[in-house]
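ENTRY TYPE: protein
WANTED: fold as tokens:
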Amino acid sequence: MFTEIEQRLSSESVDETWLLSTLESEQGRLSLPQEIFDAVRQRIVEAADKKMEKMAKTADMEGNLYPGMDDDPNRTQLATSLFKSKDTPEISDSKAGSSNPSVTTEEAPNRSIKGIGDTLNDRFILEERVGSGGMSTVYRALDRRKLEANDRHPYVAVKILNVEFSAHPDSLIALQREAKKCQRLAHPNIVRAYDFDRDGTTVFMTMEYLSGHSLAQILRRPDFKGMSCDEAMPIVEGMANALSFAHENGIVHADFKPANVILTDDGQIKVIDFGIARAFQLPGEGDMEATRFDPGSLGALTPTYASPEMLEHGEPDPRDDVYALACICYEMFTGRHPFGRRQAIEARDGGLAPEWKKVLTRKQWKALRAALEFERDKRTPSVDRFRNNIRPDCSKKPRIALVASVVVTALLAGFIAVGYLDISELSFPFVAMNADRNNTTLENSSNISDPEPSVELPSAEAALPAESLNPPTPGANETDGTEVDRVSFSSLLVDVNEVPEPVSSPKPALAPVMSVLEAYPCSALTARLEGGIVNVYGFLNKSVSIKALTGKLSRIPGVTAVNTEITALTDMMCDVVDLYRPYWVSNRDKALGTSIEPLKQTSEFAAGESLIVKVTTPSFSSHINVDYYALDGNVVHMLPSKRAKANQAPANYTALLGDLDQWVVSEPYGKELVVLLTTPESLFPSLRKEYETASEYLVALKDRLSRIDDEAKRDSITSDFLLINTREKR
């Protein structure tokens, strides 16, 4: 795959936009490993950057890259500022070099698009890619300001525009204007947009972080045949509320589709992606600031749900969203797109018309047919009208009070939830429609509120014969001549005084076990007791006999067996492990949750492989420190470092450290140690050198840790070890 991509990128005629779009669309089908996907995408972005720089130089010689823009100096300045020159400072230093011979970094060209592990404007730490599309990539990001303020919800969604989209000057101008408009859309059924900003050439938007599931995942299920009216209408209400509110504020969504409807874990319905929404002129607002942005011209539209006018680049109108909403509703009710997923223009020119399915009542069909008109003037004029036309049918059907879990199992079984946008499945109790159109939510309910009375199911008792509900009385069946044997339970009782108490063996105590383990130098050991069984795990110098250790433990009173799960340490690791040992033991014994592990399934790394680790912080906020103790006697500070200065994290925080080609394994080869240390405050007042001798660092580290201990914060220090084995490439 890498070879083919390199061959395509070497061609002058390659379309990087097409490559990115293909990669991102195929990701959903192929599910490439995250590190592979990010590496391929970054390579394409870098190729696009080089082409942009070449275009910029040509533009400088010819005077203007975008003809016809000289009358607007702001637009020209915005366009030319996107291209890096030799004087432009680096955007990200996450590829800076290292002279450490065991783990090296490789110099990479400046990046215009940032990724996992990078920080935007020294504030938003990109933690996880949670969604992507043709225009943008969305990340879950830690907002350092919220973290410092002890905000219970320190995460935001950061939407970064892809390189080919952010390079389009008209789109940037329009998106900046639209972002301001979207900030006006404060509505419970619309995702909140916080800000629109840039970090160097990286253009991004910050939004409310949503944890939930998209409507698209329901509609795309192979066995999905449609929802009942009662199941669908609460979702329809939420979508309609959001669109209606936007229209009242002069905004057309312009790319409304099932993937842009989120059903959150806490039961709300949210419409997202108003970031490419278009303004239209409301009556009496002739001075409205016009927008130049046309999503269709940049490939931003989803043609399956776009109206003919949108596809033909007509002026925005609320009826465009009415068409998209009707397409979605038809699909929700019937399980099929009204035009077989054909574009509106193709369906119109081909004389196609939606079919009246049996699941649709006459009024539902009439409402959908009017909203799906190809001609705007014949289409339902507003979202509110469409909702009112389709709503009455639900209340005419008798309803049965169903247990929520039964409905969920029948409709949504088999889905797995993930984060915002890159959303897997819907998983929520059956829904009840909130009558307030300004805040439609999904509510836990065993009954569905309705003006008509619910049909009561007969109880389990009513379904059984009356006689089966009562136990037979003595003599009840004696009339047929059958003698009923009765057992005297008193004859089965045993006098407890006659049963001798069993002689129990003494159980071992943990203190003498730990006393034995702590006596071993060059170790980090702890134990768990299960009756008379002692389970020992941790790290121990390879020179120590495990048999001798188990022999000592076996002589402790009450010990019946000893199990060990011990990793052997080399002599060069002894000073390191002895210093960190108290914090490793405390972390394990108190189950604080601090851990470090390789991203891949094995801890063996060959030459040229990238070291990517997954770290998890304890159950309280802390500062993360990750150090790589190499075979040559040096220590490499992976975090914090010049490329990743921010290391403060909330409780139970999980993140990936490293990237393809950032930390690359090289000689000398053998067993090496990576240590995670979490502290309640910054370990050192300033960044240390990226690498230094381990002996020098351990002296400074010991002094600093002793000071934190003196401040009664020892219980807030935790540690974990990752022992890796490096080797030559085979």
